[in-house]
Amino acid sequence: VSATLTMHAGVEETKTYLGEDNAVLWGKGEAVTLYVGSGETAKFFNSASTDAYEGAESASFTFEIDGVTEADTYALGGIYPASAAEGINNNDNPESFKISLPATQNAELGKYDPSAYIMVLKPEAVEELPSEYTASFRRAVALNKITLTNVKEDISSVEITVPEKKYLAGRRYVDLTTGESGEVYESGTQTNVVKVNGDFKSGSFDVWFCSWGVELVEGEALTVKMASANNTYTRTITTRAEGIKFVEGDLNPL
């Protein structure tokens, strides 16, 4: 089977819109990885990347589909952005598909790094491959923001560290046939540190970053390290009884 499929996606339907002050918009130059299943055949296709969607509330991605076995029904699933699976050997296995969340993220004020805002396409079965398709995604990451106040210098990076074995970034499994996330991929790719690079002016501001779901219990420490042109400042926060939770799919303020 050969087909050209154009996928449409908007912010409110697919990225859980956060409001004008902290809207998450489609990233520049990114692509979608689409999974097409037919019988026992699984094939993966990347859309053409584009520069058209920087700061846009909607996007369209086109796939040239070829070599899919003809079937009564076709299963569709996928990952945005395609870079989350770049360089990973997935062996065409949609049930144990590996994705990677970058530990170094580049963010602007009020925005996440688009390459870290990983979403999973909600899977759907269709009787024939459509030429036009409206996508629906769910977040596969926790959206977090740290509010910094009374900062005396311009800051170039903020680093967040949690206890070892509490993984903020790295690789994990996702089941594209169900749209559900799985376990972390224990191969030395995991990290308990996320570094956010940006042009953060002095004063009070929010630093936004994406992570896997992590919970810190009472007595565990979270460290925030800020770097300016000449200095590095570190603050360690000891978790209180209520704990600290980075919940996947949610906005988690700190």
Which overall shape is indicated by the principal axes computed on the Cα atoms?
elongated
| Residue share in helix | under 10%
| Secondary structure tally: strands | 21
Order of helices and strands: EHEEEEEEEEEEEEEEEEEEEE
User: In whole angstroms, how far apart are the ends?
Assistant: 50 Å
Placed side by side, the strands forming the largest sheet appear as: 3-2-5-8-10
- Given as residue ranges, the uncertain stretches (5+ residues, pLDDT < 50) are none
What does the main sheet amount to?
5 strands, antiparallel
* Number of helices, where a helix is a run of at least 4 consecutive DSSP H or I residues: 1
Quote the average pLDDT: 87
State Rg.
Answer: 19 Å
Proportion of residues in β-strands: over 45%
Instruction: Find the structural class using helix and strand composition.
Output: mainly beta
Short structural description:
This protein is mainly β.
Describe the structure.
The structure is a single chain. The model has no long low-confidence stretch (mean pLDDT 87). The chain is mostly beta strands. The chain is 2% helix and 49% strand. The strands form six sheets. Strands 3-2-5-8-10 form a five-stranded antiparallel β-sheet, with no helix packed on it. It is elongated. The longest helix is centred in the N-terminal third of the chain and has 4 residues.
